[in-house]
Structure prediction request, 1004 residues.
Amino acid sequence: MTDLDHDAQASADPLLAPFTPGMHGNPPELAELTRNDEIVPQVVIPLADVKTREFVEEWHNASYNCYSSGHKFCREVCPVVTETRNESWSPTAFHANVVAMERGELTIEDVAADYVNCTGCGACELRCPNTLYTGDFYRFRTRTVDVVKAARALAVESGVHQEGYRSWNARTAERSHEPVLGEVPVGQDTVRDWADGLGIPVGGETILFVDCEAAFYRTSVPRAVAQVLQKAGYEFGLMGEQWCCGGPAAEMGYVDQARTFAEHNLASWRATGTRRLLVLDPHDYISFTEDYPKFFGADFDLEVVLVVELFAEMIRDGRLVPDVAVDRAITYHDPCRLNKRKGIWKEPREVLRSIPGLRFEDVDRVTQWSYCSGAGGGLAVEKPELTAAISARRLDHAGRLDVDTLVSACPWSERPLTEAGDDVDIDVLDIHELLATSLGIEVGGSRGETGDRRLAQARTGAMGRVRRTKGARGPGDAPSGAGSGDAPGGAGSDAAGSGAGDR
Amino acid sequence: MTIMLEDVDEVVRALRTVLADEQILTGRADRFNRARVPAPFPVHRWAERVPDLVVLPTSTEQVAAIVKIAHDLRVPVVPRDGGTGLTDGAVPLRGGILIDVKRMNQVHELDLVNRTVTVGTGINMLKLNEYLAPYGLFYPDDPASYPCSLVGGRIGTSGWSLIGARYGHTRDLVMSFDHVLPTGEVIHVGDGIGHKVSKSSSGYQLKHLFMGHQGTLGIATRATLKLFPKPEAELSPFWAFYNYDDAYACTGALARAGVATFAGAVLFDEHKVAYLRRDDEAYIPQPNDVRALVCAVMYGWDDEVRAGGRRLFRIAKEHGARYLGDEISEGDWAARHDRYATPLHGRTKDGQVVPMSWHCEDAAINYSQLPSVTRAWHEIVADLRRRTDVFDDWGMFAYTQGSTGVDYLTEIDVGIWEQQLDDRAWAMWVDAKRRIARVTLDHGGSISACHGSCREGEVDLVPEELGRGFDLMLDIKRTLDPHNIMNPGKYLLDRAYPEEG
Ligand SMILES: Cc1cc2nc3c(=O)[nH]c(=O)nc-3n(C[C@H](O)[C@H](O)[C@H](O)COP(=O)(O)OP(=O)(O)OC[C@H]3O[C@@H](n4cnc5c(N)ncnc54)[C@H](O)[C@@H]3O)c2cc1C
Ligand code: SF4
Prediction:
C-alpha cells in the first residue's frame, strides 16, 4: 500500500494522478471535494413493518455487497440452481430480495417460499469473489446461509409459514425429536434403542450426541461409532435426556423452538456433569459450533469434538489399526457442512486411506463444491423431489468413476443418496461403518430399508449388487443418448452435472 | 407499453398451451430478480424494468411457440441467459415476457471425430469444459465472466475472449446455431447451411447478423461449437514497469512478435495499479516505484510454449520489464480470468470504504491511440469524481484483441455507489458515458469491443459510428420483426417503426 503523494502534488488536478483515497499526505482538496458533494445522500424511507425493518437493517449491507456485484459466479456451483435453473432461487436473488425489501418493492410474503430452495451447503460463499478477494481486508465474507436463515426466521415471525416446515416443527416440538420415521412415532423412550446390547453408560464427562436421523433411521452409524470408540478404549456415555439439537428448527426459521431445545440439552449436560460432546453428524456440529454459542455466549463452554476428526487422530497415533480388508471401489462424498462450511476434508480422506483393500478414487474438495445430496437446510421436508434430483445428480457424478460404493460422512445425506444409488447400483455407506468393518466390528443396526436390502443381497452373494465392469463409462466412449431429457432435473447428459473437475 | 394486467392473464392462458405451469412465473420476486444485470442499475427505478412474466422453456420448439404467441399478441419478448451482460441487453424496458433460456443446458452431441460439440444455449463454458476434460478437449471461449455467462448470451453479445488472440472470439468458435426469429419461425444459421462448417462462401454470411444483436433479432437455442485440444501448458508471466510508457511499448512489442502460442496480453495502467494497491489480495504488493504492469499469456503444448515464452521474456527484458515471479504470475492470471478479481468496494475521495457496483467501458481502440484515449477517459471520470463520491476511478486495462496487436479492448473500470443514485447522479453518469463514447469515435475506435453498445448514453452515438449501416440495421429489424416485439427499446431500433412514435 502506498500513498503515491508526490504524484498527486506534481499534477495541478489531484484527481488526474493516481492516488490512494484516505492516505495522509493526500492533497487537502480531496477531502474538501467530498464535503461539497453534489449528490445528497439518499434518504431511505424507513419501512413501516418493524420486523422487516429490523431484518433489513441487519442484512442490507451484506446484501448490497452482493447486489452491487451481481456477477453470479456462485450460480453454477449452487446445487439448487444446477437442478432447477431458476434464477429466483439463486444466492444472487436471496441477497437482491433484501435490497428490494428495503426499497419497499417486495415483502416477506412475496419471497418466503423462494427461500425454501436452499440446502445451506455454503458453496456460493466459497465461490463468491467477495469472499475470495476482499474477505480478509474488509473482514467481510458473503454469508448467504445466514441470510437465508434470517429470511426464514422473519417469515415465521411474520406468520408466513411453509406447510411442510410448520408441521415438521410442530411434530418435533411434540415428540422432542424429528419425525424421521414418518408415521412411526419417535421419542425419548426409543432414542437409545440403537445402542441395545452395547452396554454404554448414561451421562459422564464425555457424551456421544446422536442426531435424530442416526438415532432412529440409520442406526448403523451410531452403532459403528460407539463400537469403534469402545475398541479404542475411549470412555463415553449417552446423553441423560437427549432432545433434537434444534438445528433443523433454526434452519427452517423456528428460532424460539430451536432455542428451547438448546436450553433443554444444555441443562441435561449440566445435570450429568458433561464437559465434552462427541458429534458424529455434521449438522449437529454446525448447531453446537454456531447456533449454541450464539444462544448462550460464553456460557456454552463445552468442548465439541467431531468424531471423524477424532478417528483420524486415533489412526494417526496407532490407537486404531484397521486391518480387515474391505473389497470395495469407493469414492468419497464431501458432506457440505464439513467441506464447504467447516473446511474439514482432510481427515475423512485420511480415515479412508487407512482402510486396507479399498480402491479409493478421490474427487478433490473444490470440484465437490458443486456436489450436494440435497438433504440439508430443510429442503427434503418441503421439496423431497428436489432433494431426490440433487442426490441423483450426485450419484451420476459417482457413476462416471470406476466405483461401486459412495462413502459419505453425514447420516442425513445417506438416506436420499442410498435411494439414488439403488437406481444406478451403487452402494452408499457411511465412513464410520466402513471403518468399523475394517476394525473387525460386526456393526449391526439398520441402514434404512434400501440400504439393508442392498447389503443383504451382497452378503448372501445374491445377484443384486455386482461390481460394475471396470472402465464401463470411461472417456473415449461416445457419450450416450445426449439430449434425451430436456426436462430440468433429468440428470441425463446435462453437462452442468459433469464429473471430472477442470478449473 | 408495458402490457396491462388483464392481458397478462390472456398471455398466461396462451402460454399454458405450450408450457407446464411450473415453467411460467408471474410472482413479483420472480420478475424483480430478472430485471437487472451487473451493469450500473438505477436501483431507485427498479420497478420500471421488471418483466410482466417469466418463462423457462426447455426446447427450441417451446421457445418458438412462445415467440409465436408473443408475436400474435404483440407482446414484448426479452431473451435472458446468464444475466451477466454489461450493456443491459437482458433488462426489460417495456415489460412483456422474459424468456429465460437457462434450462436449455444439455449437451446434445459430442463429435469426437470432427471435434465439435452441440449444446443448448443455456450451458455455461466452465461446466462444458468440465464435461469435455475427460476427452482431452476444451472450448476456449474464455471471458472474464467464464464461470457465469452462458453460450446464448455469448451469441447474443458476440462476446470477446481473453485468449481470443490464440483461439478466436465467440464469433469464431460458434460454428452454427438454431435460431428462433421474432415471428416464431426457426432457422439454422452458420457458414452456409452447414452445422459443422467453419468457412463457406455460399450466399450472404448470415451468422454474424444473428450474433451480437442483443436479443433484438431472436433467440439462439442450440449451438454447435468448435473444440480444441486441452492445452498442456499455460504460461502467464507478469512484468512490472516504472512507468506507463515503457509498459505500453512492451505490450505492443509482445503482441507484434508473431508468437503462435500467444493468447493475449494485458496492460494495467497507473490508475489500475494504484487501485489494486488499495486492497486487492490477488495483487501482491509491489514497491512504490512499480507503476504499470503487463501480462502475456501463452497456451499450447509444453515444447512450443517454452520456445515462445523465451522469445517473449527476451522482448520484455529489452523494454525494461521486471519479472514478478512464477507465484504471482500464475496466481494473478488464474484470479483475473477465472473469477474477475475486482474488489467490489470503492472509496470516497477522503478514504471511506463503500460498496460500489462495477462498470466496465469496453471500446475497441487501435494500439496507436491507447495513450491518448487513456488520458481522455480518466479526465471524464475525474470530472465525475470532482462533483460527487458516487463515482470512483478503478483504472484501466488494455487487452489485445487479435494476434497481430492491431487493436485493443480498452476498458476503464468505474465504481458506482448505486445506493446513492438518484436521477441527477444517473444523468451525470449517462452524460459521462456519452463523452466516453465520443472520445472513442474521435480516435477511430468502436464503442464496444465485447459487451455491446446499447446502454443509455453510449447508444446515442451508435448511428454516428455505423453511418448508413445504422439505417440498414433499421431496415433489417423491421423486416425480421414487423411488430417490434423482440427486446424493444434497445439500440434505438424503435426508429425502425416511425408510425409507432
Ligand atoms: C465479471 C464480468 C466479466 C466480464 N467479462 C467479459 C469478457 O471478458 N468478455 C465479454 O465478452 N464479456 C464479458 N462480460 C460481459 C458478459 O459476461 C457477456 O456479455 C456475456 O456474453 C453475457 O452472457 P449472459 O449469458 O450472461 O447473457 P445475458 O446477460 O443474459 O444476455 C446478454 C444479451 O444477449 C441476449 N441473449 C441472451 N440469450 C440469448 C439467446 N439465447 N439468443 C440470442 N440472444 C440472447 C440478451 O437479450 C442480452 O441482450 C463480463 C461480465 C461480468 C459480470
Ligand atoms: S453470492 Fe457472491 S458470487 Fe453470488 S452473486 Fe452474490 S456476490 Fe456474486
In short: Chain A touches chain B through 84 residues (CB under 8 Å). Confidence is low (pLDDT under 50) at residues 1-10, 461-466, 469-503 of chain A.
